[in-house]
Amino acid sequence: ILQFDRQGHIKYPQLLGGEALQRFQRAVEEEISGKMLEEVKHIMRVLGEDSEDDRIKEEALRCEDAEEGLVLLQRWCEEKCIEVPFLQGFNLHWGTSKAAAVIRALSLSEWMGKATAQLLGVDSVRLYQTSSFFKRPSHGETTWHTDLNTAPLDTNGMVTCWIALSPVLDEDHSPLLFASGSHRDFALPYWLYTCKGMQTSSDRRYPRACHAPLLPGDATFHHGWILHGAPPNFSGKTRKAFALTYIAEDAKLL
After folding, report:
1. For residue range 229-243, what is the model confidence (pLDDT) as tens digits?
2. Domains along the chain?
């Protein structure tokens, strides 16, 4: 708790293990596979809007196969000389399938509630969202950001548990990187949001930290205001992770 308060992040080895880990891995894979086509089409639409390119948006409308969509997305990104975005899935615990029930059981477990409430120093928490982050080989970086800056909430009480579902052995496997202590810097959003800026983050006494190696089932917890990101995936294998985000029970919706 003291380390989390001071640094804004901690490592928790083997949050999941054995049969529980295997069951959770299968559940996430199953839910992701059912939503992959829509996720790929969503990325294509967003990129089309950002670049004002109707061609990629039209391809998204016609696409009927996830792998075909990934090929089209890869080709388009290469033409535009941009990194291929990684796949994200949100709120996989909402479904009615058995797989969703497995995800929901961990997300709403008493243990997770108690652990995250203790880290935040509050009496109780609510589940804000669950997220899957599958980053295929050569897929791009996760840019430096803070989670609370994108949440419509009036609170400082947010914590995310990020669980490795595949080996994350070093920075080539795209682990989370943290600017230690940055969750205490009120002015942070105004001066630093780029990788180039992170090269001088030590000037503000925020050294870059990484908890790799992480084995499947290992987890990290990080504060909602901690500046963090992840490098591109150069490992040659898909980096798989799942995140559960909790907020203080009294957080107000803006």
Report:
1. 999 999 999 999 999
2. 2-32+85-253 (2.60.120.620)
